[in-house]
Amino acid sequence: MDDNGDSAGERQVSEPHSTVELSRAVRTGGEDDTGTGWPAEPSPKRRPRRHLIASVLSAPRRWALGAVGVLAAIVLIVVLVLVTQALGWLPKVGNPFEKQTTDRSGPVLLLEIRDLSHYVAAEGEFQVVIDVQQDYKYVPDFLKNQRWLFVATGTVEAYVDFAGIGDGAIIESADRKSVSVKLPAPALSRPNIDHSKSYVFAEEKGLWDRLTGIFGGDDPNYQQLLYELADQKIGDAAKQAKLTDRASENTRKMLESLLHSLGYTTTEITFVTP
């Protein structure tokens, strides 16, 4: 055969192989077979490993920078608000949860006006600790018991009632150089307890009293009992403090100075006990 025949024969022999290879290439598309006879989807281009490592290492840095930026913005806003409030550029905003007290009391009624003729010549301030306990005879204290320590502070006045001066209480000499005055003996006022300085220092309760106290079973009259005891003890202390003697001396000095200013050279002040 000639050269052309040999070439044609070779082409005829190689064509079937080329057809098979072409069909296989069409079926697989040069990629892995997916089992369906069609080529698989092309996979995305993978990033180099060094780029992935760099992105992972730089992620915390980006988060830190972002957190610092947010914190700086918050601090800047707070500073601006404080500066503007200090300069009076912004209205002051109060606490929305602040406790408020509403006074709905009625007007004060004037019941009576009295003319006073008391001359307060001395005053004593007293403080006493009231220790009072209420328990039951055959009941243990841990079950039924109430005890209070009450600190009471109050004042007592020693005064002379000039309204008690009757006829003949003032005797003047003929030459108007001397005078004698008879006055009622000084008296003590009722103790005036200062509520702002008086308070319950400690309180003890039995188990039953604690349980009933939860449901509002406390004795509402215990405060009245404490104040009554304070009145009594402070009043007794004022008597022992000899406030009346101090009031007599102060009253005598006051009247002698007044009478001398009126021209009397000799004065006699006496106190009469009714």
Describe this structure in words.
The protein has 274 residues and is of the alpha+beta class. Among the domains are: 61-90; 118-272, no CATH class. Helices cover 40% and strands 23% of the residues. The protein contains 5 helices and 8 strands; from the N terminus they run ααβββββββαααβ. It has helices spanning 3-28, 49-86, 207-214, 222-240, 243-261; strands spanning 118-135, 145-161, 170-172, 178-184, 187-188, 192-193, 199-205, 266-272. The strands form 2 sheets. Strands 1, 2, 5, 6 and 7 form a 5-stranded antiparallel sheet that branches. The longest helix has 38 residues, at 49-86. The chain is flat.
Ordered list of secondary-structure elements with their pairings:
Layout: H1 3-28, H2 49-86, E1 118-135, E2 145-161, E3 170-172, E4 178-184, E5 187-188, E6 192-193, E7 199-205, H3 207-214, H4 222-240, H5 243-261, E8 266-272
Parallel strand pairs: 4-8
Antiparallel strand pairs: 1-2, 2-5, 2-6, 2-7, 3-4
